[in-house]
Design brief:
Blueprint (H helix, E strand, L loop, with lengths): L1 E8 L2 E10 L4 E6 L5 H9 L6 E6 L2 E2 L5 H4 L3 E4 L13 H9 L7 H4 L5 H7 L13 H13 L5 E5 L7 H17 L3 E5 L3 H6 L3 E6 L2 E7 L4 H7 L2
Parallel strand pairs: 3-8, 3-9, 6-7, 7-8
Antiparallel strand pairs: 1-2, 1-4, 4-5, 9-10
Helix pairs in contact: 3-6, 6-7
Amino acid sequence: MIELKNVKCKFIFNDGLNLKINKSEFVVIIGDNGAGKSSLINLISGNLFCLSGQILIDGMDFSNKKNFERSKYISHVFQDFRAGTNGLMSVRENLSLALNKNNINLFRRAIKKEHDDLFKNMIDLDLNKKVDELSGGQRQKLSLIMAIINKPKILLLDEHTAALDPVAAKEIMEFTSKIIKENNLTALMVTHNLKMSAEYGDRLIFMRNGRIKFDIKGNRNLEDIVKMFE
């Protein structure tokens, strides 16, 4: 599904990064600060370009494709829950904008409540409420729905619970896991929360100094994960 072949980029992955991620895998990425975690997902999303090597998605070469060219296949949710939403617009308007992001001329027609049934099935928020009035957890939930509303193949999560309190972070992680499974997504999640890295995902990757030091599939426990940092 996703394959990086000897990928190098400025300041990181000087030895060349090689990685294969299978379809529908939920991969959790942890590691030291500056290890290359966010750089990895930014390379996949197109926010960072490789100097050499290849990035393949379903066998197609995405190495030189720009961010907007990848958006049909890839969605990205960030740590700042304000990054993916417009606070001055309603929940309905934000969802309509996401639904029609590749056809902006249909936006005004789309916000005439014609998609309300779809939106209500996807999210339990008041569609008329301004996004600035939502809590951080509600806004991040909206960001997640907006990210998957057009059915991408890949979901990238860059510390998307880090700015939330523990209760909201737990709720968002449960919601994240649910939508990944229900939509059969291939997902990569960067986190500093070691407890979450033990509880979620099918596979754990530990990075250090631009290299993958551990790559573990299946179950793992928190004690073993803590030891990786020693």
